[in-house]
Specification:
Blueprint lengths: L1 E3 L2 E11 L2 E9 L8 H15 L4 E7 L5 H7 L3 E7 L11 E8 L1
Parallel strand pairs: 3-4
Antiparallel strand pairs: 1-2, 2-3, 4-6, 5-6
Amino acid sequence: MLEENNAFVGCVYLEKKADRMYLGLLCVDPAQQGKGLGRKLMTIAEEFGVNAGCAAMDLRSISPRTDIQPFYMHFGYRVTGTSPMPPDVVMAVPSHFIHMSKSL
């Protein structure tokens, strides 16, 4: 969780899987976006991965969120593949996962 001035402004989920770190649920309060807080969370997450001995960071996004891929690419992440949504997940628009990864 990221707090500034005693207020919650963002969070990120990290999970170590062998020598890789999974990053998920990166979120910044919409009222606080555009202030570099997403960048701050990414830096903290990557440093955590390095300190945990991980060789790479992996993440996934959903295909309709085309605005997110350039954000991650800016940090050096590259698309590594795709996978379908689980059959029990109902989406308003057709969607699939986009997998991205970066060496740490």
